[in-house]
Amino acid sequence: MQALTVTKWLKMKRDGIPISMVTAYDYPSARLAEEAGVDAILVGDSLGNVVLGYDTTLPVTLDDIIYHARAARRGAPDTFIVADLPFMTYRLGAESTLRNAGRLMQEAGVQAVKLEGGADIAHEVSALTAAGIPVMGHIGLLPQSIHQIGGYKVQGKLEADIRRLVDDAKALEEAGAFAVVLELVTDGAAEAVTRALKIPTIGIGAGAACDGQVLVFHDMIQYASPYRSKKFVKTYADVGTAIRDAIGAYVRDVKSRTFPGAEHSFPGGSELAAHLYGGGEAD
Description:
It is a single chain. The chain is of the alpha/beta class. The protein is 43% helix and 13% strand. The protein contains twelve helices and eight strands. It has helices at 6-14, 27-36, 47-50, 62-75, 94-108, 122-130, 146-149, 159-175, 187-196, 217-220, 239-255, 270-277; strands spanning 19-23, 40-43, 80-84, 112-114, 135-140, 179-183, 201-204, 212-215. It has an eight-stranded parallel barrel with strand order 1-2-3-4-5-6-7-8, surrounded by seven helices. The relative contact order is 0.11.
């Protein structure tokens, strides 16, 4: 499979071809995603929630993202990979943003970075794209600003909110972003933004009008305990239950001494063992 490029993202929008994207945070998940034919992988700071056990994405560091993105790149060498710039690795001035994004590109080998924000970060997006770093925008619900916005609330309910989302998206497009994620916004807001842009929109909880969709790997296959259902997520498997049941079966086999069986063992050497540990003599 030939990896996407920024120009191919734009062509897919023009041609009306939906873009499939999924998160991945390690070698096996990225490998499976590539084998399944996904268009792009996001190494998101959501790894803080689903992999590292944090309540929010805020504790995730740039080193965390680089570590996981490098593993994902090894698993999916032929897939377009976007990685998040985590909390407080941008919005500190263009020079700092460039330095952090450059580390992510060089050390992890990703093709693009993603930043949360709209017109307020357009100058940093412009600096990144001028330096040759492709940027995916992210508007709507901004998990890195969760304490500021007061929780996980659907965005774009009012006409003024929709206008603001459109203005933010246009500012990102004008700054050189090649795509924009719309998170947890109303169908009407997502449609308005998608129609207003020449670059593709990627929705997560943003309805069917977007040019593509992204889901968190762990959500779509219920790889969690306990799994908390989300209205905007369609689950395609229950991996968590399968894993729990498998480990439980292993524990029972060990306790009952049915594992390992003869088929899992290597015959021979009993006489030597008796000589070494049981006082017998070997031939």
